[in-house]
Amino acid sequence: MMKITQANSNEGKEYIEFLKKRAEDVQNDVNIVVDKILQDIKTRGDDAIIEYTKKFDSKFITLENIIVTATEIKNAYKMVDKDFLEAITLAKQNVREFHEKQVKNPWMMKKEKGVVLGQTVRGIESVGIYVPGGTAAYPSTVIMNAIPAKVAGVKNLVMVTPPTLDGSVNPHILVAADIAGVDQIYKVGGAQAIAGLAFGTETISKVDKIVGPGNIYVAMAKKNVFGYVDIDMIAGPSEILIIADENSNEKYIAADLMSQAEHDVLASAMLITTSRELADKVVCELGVQIKAMSRKDIISESLERYGVILIVQNIKEAIDLANKIAPEHLEVLLDNPFDFLGDIKNAGSIFLGSYSPEPLGDYIAGPNHVLPTSGSARFFSPLSVDDFIKKSSYIYYTKEALSEVADNVVKLTEVEGLTAHGNSIKVRLES
């Protein structure tokens, strides 16, 4: 089910390189399809939106019902149970509490001779959230994308999500969107939804930024509209890496590996351990637990193709290897996990100890579950309030203050050959 190999063997090194490239093979073919859709939406607007939505999602979608109504949201509340409402409300509270700690304040500094410098911080005016729909409905994704935007002060927060075959939207998604404060919801998905948000149509308003996960068509569409709008990140297949030793619990490890493998056949589940005995126990435990999983076929294929157990000599080697892989999710299932936190440089989100499994972060703990994948945790961060703000700097100089630095400014303009820049300074100081 999962291969076991020495981390420093050729097989171990080849696996790490293979992991980085697992989604590249399909991108070229996908881009051809995505480019056609983007250009079609840009040229034909609403007509193309409806055409693609009928083709890919529901034949019942029209311009008259593409926007979710207040009545539909009210009815959605009747279709979800009390336990869901309690859980999603707790998730909202925890996510808001965590992200409120990230808020940045504007600042001003006053210097000699009346100089004033500062920075303003404002929420982006309009943001679009993509939320997978249909059979893959994730209300947690609504919370994780919408709450940081609202905390940042985004004024116009819209959501796009694919309708089901009958033209409706999953009620759990609608309730989550209402609780999170989403302002408007469109029943459209795929690359066509990204195009609608990026370019605008007669019905869908253009936004300034697009966030949220989706399939590879959505990911490529986001990549291709970057520049027309901002985006959060290009998310690849999900991944988890677990660091464990001989004292770790094989049942917990097996369960956590499967929790990511069930996402997608391209998902990657990895274990780095100092114990060959533990590795063997984990493989046996996977065979036991997988039988009860509803998505066992996906889990099995994912673990077979992209799962691996890497044996290392010590925990330092394990952490060094984890930093090289830079996983989306990193679990440290060791005694005294805080002892190792300072050595972890590259990970999207870090889960410390035996009772902090990755799904806790996916749903309820508070930190964001929109995370960098495919090694991009080396230079990307989780989705945060920072992704929904923009900053402007400001400058105020008196004539006296300008006079003091004028010669320095002019000298630099002359070195760069920009005489009009220098003239802009000189004309203000002429008698």
UniProtKB/TrEMBL annotation:
InterPro entries associated with the record: Ald_DH/histidinol_DH, Histidinol_DH_CS, Histidinol_DH_monofunct, Hstdl_DH
- Cofactor binding: number and manner: Binds 1 zinc ion per subunit.
Please state the pathway this protein functions in, per its UniProt record.
Answer: Amino-acid biosynthesis; L-histidine biosynthesis; L-histidine from 5-phospho-alpha-D-ribose 1-diphosphate: step 9/9
* Residues binding substrate, per UniProt: 238, 260, 263, 329, 362, 416, 421
Q: Does the keyword Metal-binding apply?
A: yes
- EC number(s): the record gives 1.1.1.23
Swiss-Prot/TrEMBL catalytic activity: L-histidinol + 2 NAD(+) + H2O = L-histidine + 2 NADH + 3 H(+)
Q: Record-annotated residues binding Zn(2+)? A: 260, 263, 362, 421
Keywords, ordered alphabetically: Amino-acid biosynthesis, Histidine biosynthesis, Metal-binding, NAD, Oxidoreductase, Zinc
GO biological process, alphabetically ordered: L-histidine biosynthetic process
Q: Kind of enzyme, top EC level?
A: oxidoreductase
Residues reported in the UniProt entry to bind NAD(+): 130, 192, 215
The coenzyme or cofactor needed here is: Zn(2+)
Q: Which GO terms describe its molecular function?
A: histidinol dehydrogenase activity; NAD binding; zinc ion binding
Q: Where is the active site?
A: 328 (proton acceptor), 329 (proton acceptor)
Q: Mind telling me which GO cellular component terms the entry cites?
A: cytosol
Family label: Belongs to the histidinol dehydrogenase family.
- What role does it play? Catalyzes the sequential NAD-dependent oxidations of L-histidinol to L-histidinaldehyde and then to L-histidine.
Which NCBIfam families does UniProt cross-reference here?
A: hisD
* Name of protein: Histidinol dehydrogenase
Q: Which organism is it from?
A: Clostridium tagluense
